[in-house]
Amino acid sequence: MQDRWSRMSKQRQGTFLRSVVVAAAALLATQAHGSPSADPLAPAGRWEGNMRGSASTPPMGWNSWNAFRTEVDEDKVMGAARVLVDSGLAKLGYTQVNLDDGWWLKRRTGDGRLQIRTGIFPSAATGGPDGTSFKPFTDRLHAMGLKAGIYTDIGRNACSQAYDLHSPNLPQGTTAEREVGLDGHVTQDINLYFREWGFDYIKIDACGLADFVPGSELVKKQDYRAMAPLIERNSINRTDIAAVRARYEAVAAALKAARPANDYVLSICAWGMANVRTWGKDVGNLWRTSSDITPSWTSMLHNFDSAAKRPLYAGPGHWNDPDILHIGHGDFDAAHPVEVRSHFSLWAMINAPMLVSYDLRNGPAAFLAVLGNADVVRLNQDKAGHQGVVTYDSDDAQIIVKTLGDGQRKAVALFNRGASPAPVTLLARHLKLSDSAPVTLRDLWSKQRVTFTGEKAFTLAPRETLVFEATGTRQLENGVYLSEIPGSINVAVDGTRQPQPDPTIHRMIDPWSNTRSGGSRPQYAGWGGAQADTTPFGQTLQVAGQAFDSGIGILANSRLQVKNDAGHAVLTASVGVDDSTEDTKQPVRFHVYGDGKLLAESPPVAFGARAHRLRADIRGVKVIELVVRGAASDGAAPVVATWGDVQLVRAAGR
Ligand code: GLA
Predict the structure, then answer these.
(1) Which atom of ligand 1 is nearest to the CA of 271?
(2) How far apart are CA 506 and CA 22, in angstroms?
(3) Which protein residue has the closest C-alpha to ligand 1 atom 5?
(4) Model pTM score
(5) 29-46, pLDDT tens digit by residue?
(6) Ligand 1, atom 11: closest residue by C-alpha
(7) d(CA 84, CA 358)
(8) Which residues participate in catalysis according to the annotation?
């Protein structure tokens, strides 16, 4: 071994070590779910999606950050809370009131208990041996029918301690007293926040793992304890994904212990780093998919894109988080009603958390009318939790379709990303509705109705988003395509190997470094992940020249889980190696399992072979698993596999 090892090139050694790490991580992940199986592709026979925490629909409410940064105080927060209640927004679901950075004074020497900055939160000055407490504050919010959220960092220090050095509200005291993050204090702090202080929601940032670099000016000047970065924002390969994930796992475990009734929300704020777009769903209830939103149109595009192509990774209890809304500022202020409605509509369509963050006490009534659009809120809060799927994609305009509830109704957004008017033709086919039957659209902003057959042309104003509820005759009258129900799917293993940054996300001029870097680079891993209605790399699904409008695109050596809650009877699919695959040599096999039992499988199929028809009887099955196995060859890129037209139908036939 020693000899072979030393003869290997550095690159081969690296690849080998990485494959060991990936295999070990996969093993740990399965073991964390209680399964002794070492094969991550083996069917689990039960739903493995994360059931911890309670976010059955995307969180809604208010967050202090975009409004006040660290200059938050009790009057400002209670003022926002009061507006939520008095305006009726709370009744619509905006119940979460979240403190962000800036609330803390220090970590007390001796017992390590966190102390609140009572200068800005006077009700926290409870005195006694504890010093300070947020209990009076959360009691008031709870008495108003609201929920309370708090903020911390997964490392020792928080983001403001790196980026808001002029803030009057930075933690004070010795180096140790200013270590207000969770590092070394997970159980103590989680118990304090959730058992003693009564918070319901926690947002956990990650600057502590990224920005306090040994030898840096920041560490020296501010006298912080350095931490070798676990996250390097510009290098996924130099980021310790397993260590970052393990830290959030530890918090998830502490939360579960602190609140066994499961009445909490865990919001992971690792800004799309450390491959969180892939594993966030297994650990938290929402996870940031990108860097911070700024009040500019292109930043909104960037953040939207970071979540919009990940519908299969979200669902009830776990949501992609493109960040808090920036309505109220910059390109989304009162002078930009088109942009405000677009931002809001897009977040609704992709099941993003609907957390507003402007000074609600002083905002214009027009914003309350936008936030109060019950039809749009209903899209976002639809119980089935199917994130909208980008059905037509271009850099100019997009069409996003979201299945509502039972699958009979759809919502559709036509989105003009650009600065010129855009001609957009909506096809019944985009909605997976019949071409030959009438389709009725109800505009959720103007409330007007229009009916068409086949297709309907629109011209969108610059930056305009039209949102409709659509009804018609479904293409599949007797069932659903899996790509229509992403919220019922758990991507257990997506087949990606070394995580790759996703190049499809709009690259704005970085608001912090401007043009000082070599360029605005792709940053967020997840490229090659499972996709609805496209291949993992955004190509049309196609097997041996046969294109599929519907289906799931995924890499080989993957496993998907599908809930069969609606009690469908039959699964059918046309499966094969996608024409876009880079590896055109290796064959793969497709397998369908029901509650752990093999129901159907394909022979080995290779590039160029016609799609193989699969049919499985799934009567009585609760969890279907779709597995693609191929050679785990190290060198070549994974084979691109297509589950063409994969669908669930009620009765035999078709
Ligand atoms: C990071 C987060 C923001 C906000 C600030 C607070 O930048 O991504 O959402 O919480 O920290 O300092």
Answers:
(1) 8
(2) 29
(3) 159
(4) 0.94
(5) 433 444 445 899 999 999
(6) 159
(7) 12
(8) 205, 292
